[in-house]
Amino acid sequence: MYQNKIALTAKDILNKDFKIDTRGYRLKEVDQFLDIIIGDYEQFNNIISNLEKEKADLLAENMNLKQELRSAKMHAEIVENNTSDVGVSNMDLLKRISRLEKIVYGSRSEENDPKDDSEDE
């Protein structure tokens, strides 16, 4: 990503030849300076590659977290839908219990006063 924005590589700097004039620069000073530049460029390249790896890891983690979030939302919706169904089934259970109580307690009272239970069912 950042590699395209850097004009020179460490090898470009190392292989650079300077023209020598009679009043030119001292070669030793130029070489020392270029060594510093080469070291900086290598360090920059290492930093950039480490940051790109970290970025890729963070993007992958971000995608995983988004998938987990979608999954959690889906499970929450399912639970919410099931909870509303549970309320209906609880009502059904209460009705069934009520019918059973009528049958059980009604049968005891039938011994005393018989009546038709077919209405309840």
What does this structure look like?
By secondary structure, the chain is an all-alpha fold. It contains 2 helices and no strands. It has helices at residues 10-14, 27-112. It starts with 9 loop residues before the first helix and ends in a 9-residue tail after the last helix.
Keywords:
121 residues, mainly alpha
Annotation, overall tally of beta strands = 0
Please describe the biggest sheet, giving its number of strands, its sense, and whether it closes into a barrel. none
Span between N and C termini? 75 Å
On the 0 to 100 scale, the average pLDDT is: 79
In a nutshell, what does this entry contain?
With 121 residues, the protein is an all-alpha fold.
Topology:
Blueprint: H1 10-14, H2 27-112
